[in-house]
C-alpha cells in the first residue's frame, strides 16, 4: 500500500476581474495528475518554472484548495480533511522550503522556531521541550547553543538544517521538500542532499522532492515525475527516464543538464542538437490541438508517457 496516493488532482485558481470581481477564468496550475509515494521512498517532481510543482506540494500539505481529485494517506481518503486541523495527518506530513530566509521568522530565536510545531500539537513542559529541541539539533548536526541564536547568524546550509529540524519535530512520515537546495552553493548542496538521505534512512521518511533541476533529483529519488503545464508528461523509475526519455519536454530538460565529464561533451552536444531539431519539427505531436499535454500511456515496465 502506498503511503501517499494522489488521484487525478486538480488545483484551478480563479482569476477575477471587472468591477464586480467575478471569476473570469482559471489558471489550471495542476490539471489532473496522479502519483504515489511508498513509505521511506523518494519521488522526484521536476519541471520548469510555472509547471505546477509547488502547487502540487501545497495541495498535499493542505495549503492550496483542491478543485478535484482525491488524496489518500495510509489508504484513507483524507481529501476533505486536508485543509482542516486533522491533526494526525498534519503531523505526519511536513514541508521544507527553498528560501530559508523567509521560511524562518527572522525575529524569533531558533528555539522558538523549532518549538512552534511542538507547541501547536503537543503540549509539553518547558524542560521537555528544550530537551527535544536539543535532540533535534543534534540530529541535524548542530550544537545546542544554536537554539539561543537568530536565523541571520547562520549560513544558508545551516539554516536549511534548522528548517529540517523543525520539520522533523513531530516525527513526520512524509516530507515535501520544495527546491530545498536551489538557493545553496554547489558544495553546500551536496552536503544538504547527503544529509537528507541520512535522515531518510534513520527515520524511514518518504520525500516528495521538488526541483527544476534533473541533475539534483538524479541522486535523490527512485521514481520520477516530469511536470509541464500542470500535467505529467512522463513518469516512472528514474533510470528509465534518464536512459530512455520519450517526451520532447523530458528530452529538453535532460539536454539542459551540464555534463562535467569532458569525454562526453561531444556526445552531449549531438544530443542537444537532435533535441532542438525534434522540438522545432515535432512539437505538435506531443500536445493536443489546445496545446494540452495528453493523458499518460504505458510504454514499458514502470514507464508512462503522455502521448496521443
Ligand atoms: N495563489 C495563486 N493564484 C493564482 N495563480 C497561482 C497561484 N499560485 C500559483 N499560481 C500559478 O499557477 C502556476 C503554477 O505555479 P507553481 O508555483 O505551482 O509553479 P512551480 O512549478 O512551483 O514554479 P517555480 O519553479 O517557479 O517555483 C503558475 O502559472 C502560477 O502563476
Ligand atoms: Mg515552485
Automatic annotation (TrEMBL):
Keyword match Ion transport: no
Database matches in SUPFAM superfamilies: P-loop containing nucleoside triphosphate hydrolases
GO biological process, one term: peptide transport
The keyword Transferase is assigned to this record: no
GO-annotated molecular function: ATP binding; ATP hydrolysis activity
Gene3D superfamilies linked to this entry: P-loop containing nucleotide triphosphate hydrolases
Name of protein: Oligopeptide ABC transporter ATP-binding protein
Pfam families: ABC_tran, oligo_HPY
Top-level lineage group: Bacteria
SMART domains reported for this sequence: AAA (SM00382)
Recorded family membership: Belongs to the ABC transporter superfamily.
Keywords, comma-separated and alphabetical: ATP-binding, Nucleotide-binding, Transport
Source organism per UniProt: Ruminiclostridium cellobioparum subsp. termitidis CT1112
Limits of the ABC transporter domain: 4-254
Alphabetical list of InterPro entries matching this protein: AAA+_ATPase, ABC_transp_ATP-bind, ABC_transporter-like_ATP-bd, ABC_transporter-like_CS, Oligopep_ABC_C, P-loop_NTPase
Amino acid at each position: 500500500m502506498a503511503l501517499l496516493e494522489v488521484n487525478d488532482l486538480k488545483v484551478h485558481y480563479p482569476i477575477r476581474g471587472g468591477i464586480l470581481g467575478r471569476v473570469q477564468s482559471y489558471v489550471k496550475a495542476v490539471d489532473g495528475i496522479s502519483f504515489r509515494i511508498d513509505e521511506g521512498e523518494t519521488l522526484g517532481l521536476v519541471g520548469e518554472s510555472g509547471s505546477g510543482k509547488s502547487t502540487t506540494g501545497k495541495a498535499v500539505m493542505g495549503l492550496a484548495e483542491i478543485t478535484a481529485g482525491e488524496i489518500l494517506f495510509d489508504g484513507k481518503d483524507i481529501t476533505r480533511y486536508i485543509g482542516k486541523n486533522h491533526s494526525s495527518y498534519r503531523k505526519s506530513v511536513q514541508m521544507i522550503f527553498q528560501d530559508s530566509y523567509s521560511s524562518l521568522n527572522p525575529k524569533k530565536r531558533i528555539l522558538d522556531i523549532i518549538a512552534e510545531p511542538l507547541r501547536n500539537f503537543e503540549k509539553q513542559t518547558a524542560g521537555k521541550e528544550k530537551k527535544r529541541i536539543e535532540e533535534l539539533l543534534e540530529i541535524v548536526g548542530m550544537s545546542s547553543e544554536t537554539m539561543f541564536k537568530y536565523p541571520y547568524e547562520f549560513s544558508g546550509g545551516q539554516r536549511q538544517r534548522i528548517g529540517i529540524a523543525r520539520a522533523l519535530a513531530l516525527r513526520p512520515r512524509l516530507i515535501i521538500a520544495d527546491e530545498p537546495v536551489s538557493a545553496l552553493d554547489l558544495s553546500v548542496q551536496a552536503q544538504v542532499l547527503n544529509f537528507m538521505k541520512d535522515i531518510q534512512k534513520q527515520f524511514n521518511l518518504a520525500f516528495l522532492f521538488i526541483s527544476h533541476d534533473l541533475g539534483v533529483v538524479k541522486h535523490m529519488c527512485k521514481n520520477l515525475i516530469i511536470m509541464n503545464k500542470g500535467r505529467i508528461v512522463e513518469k516512472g523509475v528514474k533510470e528509465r527516464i534518464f536512459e530512455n526519455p520519450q517526451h520532447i519536454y523530458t528530452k529538453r530538460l535532460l539536454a539542459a543538464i551540464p555534463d562535467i565529464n569532458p569525454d562526453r561533451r561531444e556526445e552531449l552536444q549531438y544530443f542537444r542538437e537532435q533535441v532542438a531539431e525534434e522540438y522545432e519539427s515535432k512539437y505538435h505531436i506531443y500536445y493536443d490541438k489546445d496545446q494540452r499535454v495528453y493523458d499518460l500511456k504505458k510504454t514499458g515496465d514502470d514507464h508512462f508517457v503522455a502521448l496521443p
